[in-house]
Amino acid sequence: MPIWQPSLHMPGNGKHGVSTLFIDDHHSMLEQTPVLAANEIHLWLANLQPSPERLARLAATLTVDERERAARFRFPGHRDRFIAGRGLLRELLGAYLNRMAAALRFSQGPRGKPVLADAHSEGLHFNLSHSSGRVLYAIAYHEVGVDLEAMDRRLDYMAVAERICTPREWAFFQTLPAEQARESFFACWTRKEAVAKALGDGLAHGLNKLDAGFQEDEQADKRISLQDAAGQEWSVQNLPLEPGWAGALAAPPIDWHWRMLTLGELGVSD
């Protein structure tokens, strides 16, 4: 019986198409190999609340080191989300590479960014972000960074904005009405985080060194160019997610497009 299936498709930049990929209950692999073009980024959105049976199957794909890391989490919920997120990452990457999830090995890039370690990675890059029980994966044939944030109204966004904004951004931010300021903050924050994650070093010199292009007419589908402290250029776009969520995608300044797919476990509410 299939366990995971895409339940929602959101086209990116006018690119349409519905996936019919499934993860098999017993084999922990997608039944079809996803087709990823050289200039395409696949985004997969999933909940991190699988059934106990599903969680056990995901845990079985982890290495000894990953299981030991999971065991160090103080709270069971945090442990289970780590297992689900890591196991699902293995299943997705295994599907693209046509390999078993448990056979994949990871290492770290020069700046600490997780990468596929073995010679069979076929140039595949990935990044992920999790927030409030959800995870967003980005998979591409070039460097990529992604950020997902739940727009928690309890967050003191003004305090965070003052810390992460450049002087120009902070001056502009303070002129906005409260609700617009909140939305602009999350748009700006996720753009910065996406670039930081694409780099892999969390912007060691601080998010307040990166001007994320605060604009009065923020549009989710508008792509902008940003330059990091080293002068490297990035193409960044906020993602049109459901209300209450913010996200952004960063990649090299090439002609790329993205596709969003939502993974939902059958029998478990999204």
Could you explain how this protein is built, in words?
By secondary structure, the chain is of the alpha+beta class. Helix content is 28%, strand content 27%. The chain is built from six helices and twelve strands. It has helices at 52-59, 64-71, 76-97, 157-164, 167-173, 178-199, and strands at residues 2-11, 23-24, 40-47, 106-108, 114-116, 125-131, 134-140, 145-150, 223-227, 233-238, 245-251, 257-265. A hairpin with a 5-residue loop joins strand 9 and strand 10 (233-238). The longest helix has 22 residues, at 76-97. The radius of gyration is 19 Å and the shape is globular.
- What proportion of the residues is helical, as a percent range? 25-40%
The overall number of domains is 2
Q: Architecture of the largest domain, CATH level 2? A: Alpha-Beta Complex
Strand content: 25-35%
Category by helix and strand content: alpha+beta
Kindly state the number of beta strands.
Answer: 12
CATH topology name of the largest domain, in short, is Ribosomal Protein L22, Chain A
- Distinct helical segment count: 6
Shape: globular
Mean pLDDT: 82
Strands of the widest sheet, in order across it, are: 2-1-12-3-7-6
* Main sheet overview: 6 strands, mixed
Distance between the termini: 19 Å
Annotate the secondary structure layout.
Elements: E1 2-11, E2 23-24, E3 40-47, H1 52-59, H2 64-71, H3 76-97, E4 106-108, E5 114-116, E6 125-131, E7 134-140, E8 145-150, H4 157-164, H5 167-173, H6 178-199, E9 223-227, E10 233-238, E11 245-251, E12 257-265
Parallel strand pairs: 3-12
Antiparallel strand pairs: 1-2, 1-12, 3-7, 4-5, 6-7, 8-11, 9-10, 10-11
Helix pairs in contact: 1-3, 2-3, 4-6
